[in-house]
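User: For my dataset I need records formatted as: sequence, then structure tokens, nothing else. Please produce one.
Assistant:
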Amino acid sequence: MSVLEIKNLHVSIEDKEILKGLNLTLKTGEIAAIMGPNGTGKSTLSAAIMGNPNYDVTEGEILFDGQNILELEVDERAQLGLFLAMQYPSEIPGITNAEFIRAAMNAGKEDADKISVRDFITKLDQKMELLGMKEEMAERYLNEGFSGGEKKRNEILQLLMLEPKFALLDEIDSGLDIDALKVVSKGVNEMCGEGFGAMIITHYQRLLNYITPDVVHVMMEGRVVLSGGPELAERLEKEGYVKVAEELGIDYHEEIEG
């Protein structure tokens, strides 16, 4: 079992503090859902874990199996087994999906350990079929001209091909219709097992109807303020964040405005 532990994490962007002493532990074999109002730092958390240079970690630690990864570059964190599915994937003209994914799979490996072209194509075909993706998608430039749903499927395709230890999934359900949501969820569920853990950032219970979390964490004021089982997500869906915030003595409206 691998463990990703975030301790007293403080993160700022453009001198504004977003995360304010956040503590969180993720384990392989578990799916953790992160929920909370807009502006509370959910996407900031995933960016800080992955090492986005636009986010300044001013205090705290991020430990991957006991190793503090804050000094590592993004590619080094990826090679340890971290993966980020972004809310808004970038378009990269001139590089095909297949070229990008194979390069990512072989990054940092000795020649003897790199996946062969034959094995890569076989695996790519299998995963694309699982996600209902047309073969032509492999030769299209990365995310260029893709619809929102195609971009999200492509992120999950990368997840299935790279097989990381931890996936940080930032609003993978955003903008998806019900059919696309089922396909994306199918891909994530395909990865579930003892050697894989995921942090799923979402606003809505509907995604969790297809990917059942082991634990749900609620973020407000830049930190985790409440944790529970899948029933916590159902409660949030029924009651909203205002009631939970009131019970915890948090001024929810002030947070949104600020």
